[in-house]
Design brief:
Radius of gyration: 35 Å
Number of strands: 7
Order of helices and strands: HEHEEHEHHEEE
């Protein structure tokens, strides 16, 4: 049998506390409730907001990477360096699309530039205008379907398309290039750069 602990007596010089009035009880309980809400509600709210932002970010990335066809704008510097497609300055109507799988990675790029810009681009990939062959559509039908490029119409009938393939040993990218000279001042360039990792 255990002995009961003795109760500590109140000090004789301290008067007993008066009972709490109703207003004080309500204020104390409201303050306790507020502290509990802040301790639980604020972190929970933060987690909900963070989860929504993360989900939205994932949806944006999914939409970006599941899109088919070209995206208006310049490829990133990393993409241009990796695929060795340097878009010359000045250029407009720039658009790109990248696909990756376990076998082959491709970057599709289109841009319109000046004749000096075209010469610079061709020089960057190690060829010249003399290497372009008239009426040689070097971009495959599969790649044209992916990008929506159509090499037909008046330019195809009048011999305005020139193409070349810049083959290089893996992992250096191989480039399929088609140049449309329908506009005599600003040629349109289409490039498919593919690399096998």
């Amino acid at each position: 049998m255990t002995a009961a602990l003795p109760r500590q007596a109140t000090p004789p010089d301290e008067p007993p506390r008066p009972p709490e009035d109703r207003r004080h009880v309500i204020r104390r309980r409201a303050l306790t409730l507020l502290i509990i809400v802040l301790l639980i509600g604020v972190p929970a709210g933060y987690l909900v907001i963070s989860a929504n932002q993360s989900r939205d970010s994932g949806k944006d990335k999914e939409a970006k990477y599941s899109a088919t066809g070209l995206t208006e704008g310049w490829p990133s510097k990393v993409q241009r360096r990796l695929y060795q497609v340097q878009v010359p300055h000045p250029s407009n109507q720039v658009a790109y699309y990248e696909t990756n799988n376990w076998k082959t990675s491709r970057l599709y790029v289109q841009f319109q530039t000046t004749h000096a810009g075209l010469d610079q681009f061709l020089s960057d990939i190690g060829v010249s205008r003399d290497d372009l062959r008239k009426d040689d559509i070097t971009i495959s039908a599969r790649d044209r379907d992916i990008t929506g490029w159509r090499f037909s119409g008046p330019g195809a009938r009048t011999g305005e398309y020139y193409g070349l393939v810049r083959e290089r040993k893996n992992p250096t990218p191989t480039l399929d290039v088609v140049v449309n000279h329908q506009n005599p001042i600003y040629p349109m360039v289409y490039v498919v750069s593919r690399t096998v990792p």
